[in-house]
Known about the structure:
This protein is α/β, with parallel strands linked by helices and 231 residues long.
Amino acid sequence: xxxxxxxxxxxxxxxxxxxxxxxxxxxxxxxxxxxxxxxxxxxxxxxxxxxxxxxxxxxxxxxxxxxxxxxxxxxxxxxxxxxxxxxxxxxxxxxxxxxxxxxxxxxxxxxxxxxxxxxxxxxxxxxxxxxxxxxxxxxxxxxxxxxxxxxxxxxxxxxxxxxxxxxxxxxxxxxxxxxxxxxxxxxxxxxxxxxxxxxxxxxxxxxxxxxxxxxxxxxxxxxxxxxxxxx
Length: 231
């Protein structure tokens, strides 16, 4: 399994013959050079969406249409995308699990954030925010989406037992480094942690050294943008 950071909260997971893009933000993403956009999405088989904010959803319909692949995510947002973007979607909800083939299953779990999309009449509700447990190659990867610490993480850790955590930790809009580390120690037994949703803007954390220092014994990987982690 190869996990590539596309900058901000965007990730690419390659496992077997499946390539999952999670919240792939291309247009206006200051962390991802424009000349690497095509490389970032090449070969995608599914596009997963955690919530409707522009820095997660802006390019979903265009990528799915260009790659001829489905968007996967919370039912309400998938219904909206199917109607407006004219793309194939897989809509499910929290507590559900979908089989993406190739030995990959995705379970939807709760997150604590907000989920709105822009409209001519101001912000409109865009389903609800979520995270994912991705089951593949004998691993369970927890992609937290955008969230704060929440008590639900206790049962996530006990029930799904994820060994890899892709955690938002930039602060301001989500957990910061200290909170992400506290949650990782309190609720999970990660072997590998990969930070996300940081370094994009000046108001976000610019380094993951605090996360590393707070998680001795955990392999905290901090790839550069378009850098990969092999699991």
